[in-house]
Amino acid sequence: MAVPQADPPAIPILSAANERFMAAAIRFGFRHAGLTGTNPSVATLIVRDDGAGPRIVGRGITARGGRPHAEAQALGEAGTLARGAVAYVTLEPCAHHGRTPPCAEALVASGVSRVVSAAADPDPRVDGKGHAILEKGGLSVTPRVMAKEAASDLSAYLTRHARNRPQITLKMAVSPDGMIGRKGHGQVFITGPIANRQTHLVRARHDAILVGMGTVREDDPGLDCRLPGLENRSPRRIVLDPDLTIEPETGLVRSARQTPLTIVARGDTDADKRQSLMAAGADFVACDVVPGTGRVALPELMEDLGATGIQNILVEGGATVGESFLEADLVDRLILVEGETMVGEGGIVSPIDVASGKQRFKLTERLRFGPDQWFEFERRI
């Protein structure tokens, strides 16, 4: 009877390949952004060189809902080829016991010779402990390879741990004269179809999208993702409605069984109306109101929403909601799309424009989509 032959030892992969494979892992992890619950969308690549150049023998990405983790899936695909190979992981491997053993222990048991990681994990159950397990198990560890790039894609998870709330992205379309619409005229199309499709892609990458009742009354928006093939990536819709004025005939309510709808309202609002909206598929989160303003107390609400597992929220509300988030210093990322359409007299002034955005935030990207300019900013550290 033939004796199975062990796989030959892998050839060490040169450090010059680190960024190449880590960049591929970061791109791979982007596929499940917004789909992994309270866990981040981490990616792992198992790379081996048997003499003909390095090749990927195992790939893994955090599964929808958050389990299983990327490392376990990549090791399962690689099988015995993991022995002597290099694992590229976009976030430090977990070190805590849950329903499954820590990923760091699984990497040690697999026979991987080296782990290259990108972003550090601020979770106190990990935070260096994953790397310590690897090193104790005899593995070579190369941390912080493309850490900044990985942290950008994992920023919602990192923000939730650092600030105890979801990451907030404020997005607004602004006309050349600094307006976001015209009161009483419904939706004003400031940007063109290419930029609008990009907006739907941004929606697909978020757990939730938030507006106020002013936007609901003026526009009766769908707040879903309508890109072909990504319809099932529509985020949860959140409406700030402290006085519970939303009507059952509103499009958001009528579609609540297809795409989740959360209404933020005071706990003492009309119980019968609340019941009818729940029967239509909506759910509720109670809120406090800032005295003298009638506005929702946003810092407390963000903590409550974070406790439900929401990691990032796209704010597409009007001027009042946008101004409220800016005043509360809750905006982590800002997207301003500058269109060519002039609004003119009677327009609603944007609470922030590109010039003031550059003063308050750090400009990270400037793109052009057809006639429209797309500016992305992030919080200054």
Automatic annotation (TrEMBL):
<comment type="similarity">
    <text>In the N-terminal section; belongs to the cytidine and deoxycytidylate deaminase family.</text>
</comment>
<dbReference type="GO" id="GO:0009231">
    <property type="term" value="P:riboflavin biosynthetic process"/>
</dbReference>
<dbReference type="InterPro" id="IPR024072">
    <property type="entry name" value="DHFR-like_dom_sf"/>
</dbReference>
<keyword id="KW-0686">Riboflavin biosynthesis</keyword>
<comment type="function">
    <text>Converts 2,5-diamino-6-(ribosylamino)-4(3h)-pyrimidinone 5'-phosphate into 5-amino-6-(ribosylamino)-2,4(1h,3h)-pyrimidinedione 5'-phosphate.</text>
</comment>
<comment type="pathway">
    <text>Cofactor biosynthesis; riboflavin biosynthesis; 5-amino-6-(D-ribitylamino)uracil from GTP: step 3/4.</text>
</comment>
<comment type="similarity">
    <text>In the C-terminal section; belongs to the HTP reductase family.</text>
</comment>
<dbReference type="GO" id="GO:0008835">
    <property type="term" value="F:diaminohydroxyphosphoribosylaminopyrimidine deaminase activity"/>
</dbReference>
<keyword id="KW-0521">NADP</keyword>
<feature type="domain" description="CMP/dCMP-type deaminase">
    <location>
        <begin position="16"/>
        <end position="141"/>
    </location>
</feature>
<dbReference type="InterPro" id="IPR002734">
    <property type="entry name" value="RibDG_C"/>
</dbReference>
<feature type="active site" description="Proton donor">
    <location>
        <position position="71"/>
    </location>
</feature>
<feature type="binding site">
    <location>
        <position position="69"/>
    </location>
    <ligand>
        <name>Zn(2+)</name>
    </ligand>
</feature>
<protein>
    <recommendedName>
        <fullName>Riboflavin biosynthesis protein RibD</fullName>
        <ecNumber>3.5.4.26</ecNumber>
        <ecNumber>1.1.1.193</ecNumber>
    </recommendedName>
</protein>
<feature type="binding site">
    <location>
        <position position="173"/>
    </location>
    <ligand>
        <name>NADP(+)</name>
    </ligand>
</feature>
<dbReference type="InterPro" id="IPR002125">
    <property type="entry name" value="CMP_dCMP_dom"/>
</dbReference>
<dbReference type="InterPro" id="IPR050765">
    <property type="entry name" value="Riboflavin_Biosynth_HTPR"/>
</dbReference>
<keyword id="KW-0511">Multifunctional enzyme</keyword>
<dbReference type="Pfam" id="PF01872">
    <property type="entry name" value="RibD_C"/>
</dbReference>
<feature type="binding site">
    <location>
        <position position="316"/>
    </location>
    <ligand>
        <name>substrate</name>
    </ligand>
</feature>
<dbReference type="InterPro" id="IPR016192">
    <property type="entry name" value="APOBEC/CMP_deaminase_Zn-bd"/>
</dbReference>
<feature type="binding site">
    <location>
        <position position="94"/>
    </location>
    <ligand>
        <name>Zn(2+)</name>
    </ligand>
</feature>
<feature type="binding site">
    <location>
        <position position="226"/>
    </location>
    <ligand>
        <name>substrate</name>
    </ligand>
</feature>
<keyword id="KW-0862">Zinc</keyword>
<feature type="binding site">
    <location>
        <position position="215"/>
    </location>
    <ligand>
        <name>NADP(+)</name>
    </ligand>
</feature>
<dbReference type="GO" id="GO:0008703">
    <property type="term" value="F:5-amino-6-(5-phosphoribosylamino)uracil reductase activity"/>
</dbReference>
<feature type="binding site">
    <location>
        <position position="203"/>
    </location>
    <ligand>
        <name>substrate</name>
    </ligand>
</feature>
<keyword id="KW-0479">Metal-binding</keyword>
<dbReference type="InterPro" id="IPR004794">
    <property type="entry name" value="Eubact_RibD"/>
</dbReference>
<keyword id="KW-0378">Hydrolase</keyword>
<dbReference type="InterPro" id="IPR016193">
    <property type="entry name" value="Cytidine_deaminase-like"/>
</dbReference>
<dbReference type="Pfam" id="PF00383">
    <property type="entry name" value="dCMP_cyt_deam_1"/>
</dbReference>
<feature type="binding site">
    <location>
        <position position="103"/>
    </location>
    <ligand>
        <name>Zn(2+)</name>
    </ligand>
</feature>
<feature type="binding site">
    <location>
        <position position="223"/>
    </location>
    <ligand>
        <name>substrate</name>
    </ligand>
</feature>
<keyword id="KW-0560">Oxidoreductase</keyword>
<feature type="binding site">
    <location>
        <begin position="318"/>
        <end position="324"/>
    </location>
    <ligand>
        <name>NADP(+)</name>
    </ligand>
</feature>
<comment type="pathway">
    <text>Cofactor biosynthesis; riboflavin biosynthesis; 5-amino-6-(D-ribitylamino)uracil from GTP: step 2/4.</text>
</comment>
<feature type="binding site">
    <location>
        <position position="219"/>
    </location>
    <ligand>
        <name>NADP(+)</name>
    </ligand>
</feature>
<dbReference type="GO" id="GO:0008270">
    <property type="term" value="F:zinc ion binding"/>
</dbReference>
